[in-house]
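Bench notes, afternoon.
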Amino acid sequence: MNKKSYIKIVILLVFGLCICVGCSTQREEKYTMEDLDNLAEIRIYSAENNELIKTISDEEQLYHYNQYSIFDDSDTEEHQNELKKDLKGAKEQYYLTSYKYPVARFGGEELEENTTITLYEDKNIIKMTVSEESIKGFSVPEEFLIFYYEISEEEMNFYRSFVE
């Protein structure tokens, strides 16, 4: 083989490599179950009549929901009680209930309720209730499954954006 043949082969290989790289960058990346924290869907209900408004199962939205749903657990019981008092008389607006895939590999394919976030009208406080069925192995009293969080306007707008 002469020098021209080698150059042609190298050019063809580089061209082929560029095509492969271009195709791989256009491919959409899927989120893994770990990225989604086993989250399967979010159902949004109206608090007024408990009517299902919307079901979200888009991976992109679920991923962002998980990113926002990381709450500070450094709240004291005293602060929790203050937030609970601030909600007295507040009108519940929406319930955002998250569902996860069952842990068991075999058997039930029915989704398990994980948490419910309650949004209130004109308040930047949310109530998060952890579902009893998401805790396996022992029973936990209901008062230990309810948490209150004061969130920013940006975070509240994020949660309300799911309803729209």
